[in-house]
Write a structure and sequence with these properties.
The complex is a heterodimer. Chain A is mostly helical. Chain A is built from eleven helices and two strands, in the order ααααββααααααα. Chain A has one domain: Orthogonal Bundle (ABC transporter involved in vitamin B12 uptake, BtuC), CATH 1.10.3470. By secondary structure, chain B is mainly α. Chain B has a domain of about 210 residues. Chain B has a two-stranded antiparallel ribbon with strand order 1-2. In chain B, helix 3 crosses helix 12, helix 9 crosses helix 11 and helix 13 crosses helix 15. The chains are: A mainly alpha, B mainly alpha. Chains A and B meet through helix 3, helix 4, helix 9 and helix 11 of A and helix 6, helix 12 and helix 14 of B.
Chain lengths: ~290, ~325
C-alpha cells in the first residue's frame, strides 16, 4: 500500500509537468485548430535562455521570469511573422501544422548550434535529493515544488480564462471566430496572446523538468510527446481535460513502471493515444466535433 | 496546360517528343554516372535512389490520398528488421525484400484502420504514437533488434566484375526505377484517381462510389510497402541495422522530403529525396544547422510555393515553353 502511494505521489509530480505541456497544446488547438509541433522546442529554447542567464550568475528568479517572457515573445513572433502571412495566402490547416514543425526544426538546430549538444546539469533552487517523509511516502523537494507550481499555474490559468474579460474574449474567439470579430474582439491579438500564454506554460514545464533530467537540445521531446498524449486523453479542445489527462497519464505511467515493467514505461503513453483515439476520439472531457457536408 | 484529347494520351508517361529526348538523356546520364563521376557522388546517388522509394510511398499517402502520417520510421524499421532477420536465416534477398515490404504493408493496414475514423491532426498523432511505440519496442527487445551490436547483414557480392559501389549503384537504380514506374502507373489508374478523390473530399468521393474503407487502407498499405522496401534496401546497403536508425527524426526527414519536393508529384518525391540527402552532405561542417535549413525551406515552400521544388520546376518549364510569350 505504501509502495502504491509512493508511485502515485511521484506520478502526480510528473503528471503535473505533462499537464502544463498539455494545457499549452490544448490552448492553441482549441483556438486555432493547429497542433503546435514547435511547443517542445519553444520550451527548450526558453530553458536554455534561463540556463545562459544562470551561467552569468543572475538571480534565478530574474532568469526564470526572463525565460518565460522570452518564450512568450518567441511564440508571438512566430504567430505574427509566419502564421499570419501563411493565412493571408490561404494556407490549409495541415499546412499550418507543418509550419509549426518547420519552426520547431529551426529552433532545434539553433539550440544545438548555440547551446551545444552535450547534456548539462541545470542549477535549480529546489533540491532533488532533499526529501520529506509523509507517513512512509517519500517526496523530494523538487517533486513537491513541481506539483505545487503545476497546481498554481493551472489555477491561475483557470481564473484567467473563466473570470476575466480577457478570458471571455479568448473563449469567444475559440468558440466562433467570425462572430467574435463581428462583436469587436481583436481576434488577432487574442490569438497571438494565446500562443504566447501556451509557450509560457511550456517554458515553465521545461524549467521544472530540466533539473530532474539533464539539459540537452532534445530533452523536451519525450515530455512534449507525453503532453500530446495527455491532451488527447483529456480531449484536445478541453482545458480541464488537459490537466486531468496529464495527471492520469503521469500516475498511470508511474504505476506501470513500478508494478509491471520499467522498460515499457515510455511506450504506455503512445499506446494510450492509439487506444483513446480508436475508442473515444474526442477524449475524456472533450466535446464531439461533427462535420457538416 | 496540355490539351489532352484521348484517354490513351492521358495514360502516356511522356507526351511531348522534346520531353522524351531530355528524359532519355537524363536516364542515360544516370546510367553512365559511375563511369565519369567520383566514387562518393555515386555513393550519395545510391542513397538518394534508396530514399526516393520511401518518399514516393509517403507521397502516395500524404500528397495523393491526403492522409498524414508521422509514423513512417516504424514501417522503415519493420521492413528493415524483417529483411535483416530473413537475410540472416539465409533467405535470398528478393524474397527477403518482398517480405520486408509485405510485413510493413500489413502493419500499414493495421495503422490504416484509425484513418477510417480520424482525420487531419488526430491521424497525425495516432501515427506518431505508433512510430514511437515501435521504435521503443525495437530498443527494448534485443531479440528483435539484434542486441547492442546491431544486426549484421551480409552485403551483396558484386556481379559482372563491377566494383562494389558501382554494383550497388546499378542494383538500387534499377529497383528505384521499377518503383518509380509503378508509382506512375498507380496514379494514372482507377486506384490513383480514387486516392485523389479521397484527398479532395472524402464524403463526395464516397457519394460517387469510391469505397472509402478499401482505398484508404490500400493507400496506407502501398505507402508502407514502399517504405518497408526502402528499409530493407537500406539495411542491405549499409550492412547492419540498429534501432537508432529509425528515430522520430527519420520520420520527420521523410516527411520534410515530401513537403519540400512537392505534394502529389512523383518527380517531386525524387527531388525531395535528393534534397534531404544532399543538404547534410553539403553542410557537413555545420551539422547542427541541417534542421535549420530544413525548417527554413519548409517555411519558404509552404508560404511561397505550396507545390514545392516540383512546382517551381514546372513553372520554369512552362515559362521556357511559352517564351517569349507570357
Amino acid at each position: 500500500m505504501t509502495q502504491f502511494l509512493q508511485y502515485f505521489v511521484s506520478g502526480l509530480a510528473t503528471g503535473s509537468i505533462y499537464a502544463l505541456v498539455a494545457l499549452g497544446l490544448a490552448l492553441i488547438y482549441r483556438s486555432t485548430r493547429i497542433l503546435n509541433f514547435a511547443h517542445g522546442d519553444i520550451a527548450t529554447a526558453g530553458t536554455f535562455f534561463a540556463f545562459t542567464f544562470l551561467g552569468l550568475n543572475l538571480h534565478w528568479g530574474v532568469a526564470f521570469i526572463l525565460a518565460l517572457l522570452f518564450g512568450f515573445a518567441l511564440a508571438m513572433t512566430f504567430y505574427f511573422s509566419v502564421l499570419i502571412p501563411a493565412q493571408r495566402r490561404e494556407a490549409t490547416q495541415l499546412g499550418q501544422i507543418i509550419l509549426t514543425l518547420g519552426f520547431g526544426l529551426i529552433l532545434q538546430g539553433l539550440i544545438s548550434y548555440f547551446g551545444g549538444t552535450e547534456p548539462q546539469s541545470f542549477p535549480f533552487p529546489l533540491s532533488d535529493t532533499k526529501v520529506y517523509r509523509l507517513g512512509g511516502v517519500v517526496i523530494s523537494q523538487l517533486s513537491l515544488g513541481t506539483f505545487g507550481i503545476g497546481l498554481l499555474a493551472s489555477l491561475l490559468f483557470y481564473l484567467l480564462v473563466q473570470k476575466t474579460r480577457l478570458g471571455l474574449a479568448m473563449r469567444a474567439t475559440s468558440e466562433n471566430l467570425p462572430a467574435a470579430q463581428t462583436m469587436g474582439i481583436p481576434t488577432r491579438s487574442i490569438l497571438a496572446l494565446s500562443w504566447g500564454l501556451a509557450a509560457l506554460l511550456g517554458v515553465m514545464a521545461g524549467l521544472f523538468l530540466a533539473p530532474a533530467l539533464l539539459l540537452d537540445p532534445f530533452f523536451m521531446l519525450e515530455p512534449f510527446l507525453k503532453g500530446f498524449a495527455a491532451a488527447i486523453l483529456g480531449g484536445l479542445n478541453s482545458l480541464p481535460g488537459a490537466i486531468v489527462g496529464g495527471l492520469i497519464l503521469g500516475v498511470a505511467e508511474s504505476l506501470a513502471g513500478g508494478f509491471v515493467t520499467i522498460a515499457f514505461k515510455n511506450t504506455l503513453a503512445f499506446l494510450i493515444i492509439i487506444l483513446v483515439l480508436l475508442v473515444r476520439p474526442e477524449g475524456l472531457l472533450g466535446t464531439e466535433f461533427k462535420e457538416r457536408v | 496546360m496540355d490539351l489532352i484529347e484521348s484517354y490513351q494520351e492521358e495514360l502516356q508517361l511522356i507526351r511531348k517528343p522534346w520531353t522524351r529526348i531530355w528524359v532519355g538523356t537524363f536516364v542515360l546520364l544516370l546510367l553512365l554516372l559511375p563511369w565519369y563521376a567520383p566514387e562518393h557522388i555515386t555513393y550519395i546517388a545510391t542513397i538518394i535512389f534508396i530514399y526516393s522509394i520511401g518518399v514516393q510511398g509517403q507521397n502516395i499517402l500524404i500528397g495523393y490520398t491526403g492522409q498524414i502520417s508521422f509514423g513512417q520510421a516504424a514501417f522503415l524499421a519493420i521492413g528493415a528488421f524483417t529483411f535483416g532477420h530473413m537475410a540472416r536465416l539465409g533467405i535470398p534477398w528478393p524474397i527477403g525484400l518482398l517480405s520486408g515490404g509485405l510485413a510493413a504493408g500489413i502493419f500499414g493496414l493495421l495503422v490504416g484502420f484509425p484513418s477510417l475514423r480520424l482525420k487531419g491532426p488526430y491521424l497525425a498523432i495516432a501515427t506518431l504514437g505508433f512510430g514511437i511505440a515501435v521504435y521503443q519496442i525495437f530498443v527494448n527487445f534485443e531479440v528483435l533488434s539484434g542486441g547492442r551490436m546491431g544486426l549484421i547483414i551480409n552485403k551483396l557480392s558484386p556481379l559482372f566484375g563491377l566494383s562494389r559501389i558501382t554494383f550497388n549503384y546499378y542494383f538500387n537504380f534499377l529497383i528505384a526505377l521499377l518503383f518509380t514506374l509503378t508509382s506512375y502507373n498507380i496514379i494514372s489508374s482507377y486506384m490513383g484517381r480514387a486516392f485523389i478523390a479521397i484527398r479532395d473530399n472524402d464524403i463526395a468521393a464516397e457519394v460517387i462510389g469510391v469505397n472509402l474503407t478499401r482505398y484508404k487502407l490500400l493507400s496506407f498499405a502501398i505507402s508502407s510497402f514502399y517504405t518497408g522496401v526502402q528499409g530493407g534496401l537500406f539495411g542491405l546497403f549499409m550492412g547492419y541495422l540498429e534501432p537508432n536508425m529509425f528515430t522520430f527524426m527519420e520520420a520527420i526527414t521523410l516527411f520534410v522530403a515530401v513537403i519540400i519536393g512537392g505534394l502529389a508529384s512523383v518527380e517531386g518525391s525524387i527531388m525531395g529525396a535528393a534534397f534531404v540527402i544532399l543538404v547534410p552532405q553539403v553542410f557537413s561542417a555545420y551539422r547542427e544547422m541541417v534542421p535549420v535549413i530544413y525548417g527554413v525551406t519548409i517555411l519558404i515552400v509552404l508560404i511561397f510555393e505550396p507545390l514545392g521544388l516540383y512546382g517551381r520546376w514546372f513553372k520554369m518549364r512552362l515559362y521556357l515553353r511559352n517564351w517569349p510569350f507570357r
